Amino acid sequence: MKEVIITEEPIALCNLLKLENLTASGGEAKYVIAEGMVRVNQNTETRKRKKIFAGDIVEFAGRQFRVQVRGPVT
């Protein structure tokens, strides 16, 4: 399972999909979420702004990844 590193939490689910280049745009990210194509922690998620925290597992388009938080590099 791939790890996705973010610098602060939470991150909106639609922003996470864009960050990982799983969708071409924010509009596409919101569409695939609204259509029930994304799962968070094994549950179908339709809330576009669902807050994602460290340890959450997101599944989309046959890919699965765990979110991790690491502080910004100073």
TrEMBL record:
Pfam families: S4_2
One Gene Ontology molecular-function label: RNA binding
Keywords assigned: RNA-binding
Designated name of the protein: Ribosome-associated protein
Source organism of the structure: Desulfosalsimonas propionicica
